[in-house]
Amino acid sequence: MSRPPGRKQENHKISRELFVLTYGALVAQLCKDYEKDEDVNTFLDRMGYGIGVRLIDDFLARSAVKKCRSYSETADMIAQVAFKMYLGVTPSVSCSNTAGNEFSLILDKNPLVDFVEELPAERTSLCYCNLLCGVIRGALEMVHLAAEVTFLQDRLKGDAVTEIGITFLRKAEDRKHKRNK
User: In a designed cystine with 45, which of 89, 132, 134, 161 is the match (CB 3.0 to 4.6 A)?
Assistant: First the structure.
């Protein structure tokens, strides 16, 4: 028997919607379990880190990408391939400094907040999608790229876009120099 065309796309959409709804329930439960937003943010980041550590293997196997030669290529790969593959969106990338180690991923549409209207008034410092920061940080660490990943702007907090900042903590020249020794 052959599968009807479009079936895989439909299953992927259902899986994404199920993930988004489940994620919302998780964040709601964490808000009940922890009084401080910082504790919820830390928990989401740690959870995302664990996911990123494991997800990188799947990403490398499924995408068959080649090794990135610069931080710019790495940021583009995260945006154009990884976000598209796992979240179905492609953020734009901009370099934030002249050293070339700080980048912003700008999401016009964040699928994790599809069913979220706004954050509760008492949760002003909650970073609802902090899981994404942990995922990116964990995946980068597994390919030996230390990075700091934080939310710079969030639509749920009234900003025009959702912006994730990635700062690579070592210069590209340092990595190359260490390998040559």
Answer: 134
User: Which of 97, 63, 100 has the alpha carbon at shortest distance from 79?
Assistant: 63
Mind listing the pLDDT tens digit for each residue in 18-66? 888 899 999 999 999 999 999 999 999 999 999 999 999 999 999 989 9
φ, ψ of residue 78 to 5 degrees: the values are -60, -45
* Closest to 145 in 3D by CA, of 163, 126, 123, 167: 167
Long-range contacts, 175-178 (Cβ 8 Å, 24+) = 175/144
Locate 87 and state its tokens. Answer: 């979240």
135, 51 contact by CB (below 8 A): yes
d(CA 150, CA 137): 9
CA 118 distance to own-chain centroid: 20
- Tokens found for residue 138: 């964990």
Q: Pick the closest to residue 53 from 142, 125, 143 (CA basis).
A: 142
Tell me the pTM: 0.86
Tokens of 77: 């790969």
